[in-house]
Specification:
Layout lengths: L28 H11 L3 E6 L5 H13 L33 E8 L17 E2 L5 E4 L5 E3 L2 H20 L4 E4 L7 H7 L4 E2 L5 E2 L7 E8 L21 H5 L5 E3 L2 E2 L5 H7 L6 H4 L5 E3 L3 H4 L16 E2 L8 H5 L3 H8 L8 H16 L5 H8 L23 H15 L14
Parallel strand pairs: 3-12
Antiparallel strand pairs: 1-2, 2-9, 4-5, 4-13, 6-9, 7-8, 10-11
Helix pairs in contact: 1-3, 11-13, 12-13
Length: 421
Amino acid sequence: MPLAGSIPPAPLRSSDEPNGATAPAGPTQLEIHGLARKAGFTEAGIVGLPYPETAHDAARYTEFIDRGRAGSMSYLARRNQPQGELLRSRPDLPFPWARSGIVCLAGYHADAPLSTQPAPFGAAWIARYAWSGKKDSNGAARPSDYHKVLLQRLRRLETELHNLYGDFECRAYVDTGPVVERNLARAAGLGWTGKNTCLIHPRLGSWNFLAVLLTSLQLPVAETPLTVPDRCGSCRRCLDACPTQALVEPYQMDATRCISYLTIELRGDIPDELRGGMGRQVFGCDICQDVCPWNRKSPIGAEDDLAARGELINPQLEWLAELELADFERLFNGSPIRRAGFVGLRRNIAIAMGNSGLIRYLPWLERWADRASESVAQPLAGFDTSRNADADPIQNAARWALNRIRKGSGRAEPVLPLKEL
């Protein structure tokens, strides 16, 4: 993709540095790689700020927000005052003191089936990254949240850097800060942005968590930015495979159509026209990554504190449907799945049941469709009911699913097994 609006790195000004000090000299790419590996990461890179494509990336991010493609994720559209610039559009807006960005990768690919492969009868799908778990001191399996796991590793890296380079300003983030991690990772030479908008590492593929450490350390003058060329070529498997057409064109996503957004971030009813395309996905979606040729040889990367929980791989819809609020909290407290909330997950389960066309799910759907008869009216806090004064995401999804099954005449068994895309 042609680049536009590139700018050279800005010269250092003492007024930009914390306490007016000159930015201290920082580590090289090779040093960062070694330190990050020692801290527990798979791969790492460092880039000076601002990096050459900063203006280009800022323009693309602004276009993404202005077109409304962020949906209800208002935090992505936060602006500084009084300038009104999007904080996430470029690192120097929220962090004017930052002179380098360190990006670390941790793989989460597990030795388990893909969502596009044949699945057991009645299986739902939970996104691969959310399977994470670990064993406690008693050997019992517990959920683990990659945010917390990777932040601990970043803190270890930060401590080591302070030991080596003294005092400097820094901020550590794992999907929580006003930065676009994927852009920094690409600028740090860790891969290219694929047509599915994921960062693709030439050896590790795209099944990687990203963790960022912004610092006031200045890269040595001899360090030049690393780049990895775009290797997607003429391939368009991800665009063709997306069931909701969220990839509106190569390298551009409309998040409001993405199954991950619909099943995790969206509060309220999922638009009718997108429900059918959700298939069996109940939390997130892996389809555009599952079909990517660069993931065919992606190494198994999930470690002990991010190991896949077997019960979350192709889980049965009946098992998920039987979970009540207390079960949800017990199973997913400390897990990424908790972000969807109990109401959101059950809404998604109802839609997956409807998409199955199976009459075996009618008892659950009929009960949820008549929510007034339930012994526990689950809270709808945080869910958007503005479009309907009587809106209930679970009830509405269940009624849609019942109608879909009945109109399809229902069936007791799948007609054909799922085909691999």
